[in-house]
Amino acid sequence: MAKKALPVNLDLDKNGAVNDEELTSAKEIRIEEKEDAQRHMAWVAMGSMLVFTALVFLPIFPDTRIKALADLFGLFYIGQAGVVGAYMGMTAYISRKR
């Protein structure tokens, strides 16, 4: 049987074998990368709500267009607030669990 090649990022000491410590380290790194991506997504959602609100109040957009798109704006805010709320809720839940 052919020997399977190990992923480069799991074999930290480059000895050709992956031990339990390296697997644990790889899992922790993946969890941290996932948390960083979620944090970034929440910050982008919050920032987009702030920027969008500032843009709507600029005089370059006519009132008729804003009134026509009011329902869509509401959905945008609900969606973005859902992302931020889910991130905050899961962060609080996970911190209690640890």
What does this structure look like?
This protein has 98 residues and is mainly alpha-helical. The protein has one domain (20-97). It has helices spanning 20-56, 63-68, 70-97. α1 (20-56) runs antiparallel to α3.
Total helical segments: 3
Order of helices and strands: HHH
SS-based class: mainly alpha
What's the pLDDT, averaged over the residues? 84
Shape: elongated
Q: Which range best describes the helical content: under 10%, 10-25%, 25-40%, 40-55%, 55-70% or over 70%?
A: over 70%
How far apart are the termini?
Answer: 43 Å
What is the total domain count? 1
Low-confidence stretches: none
Count of distinct strands? 0
- For the report, how would you describe the main beta sheet? none
Strand content: under 5%
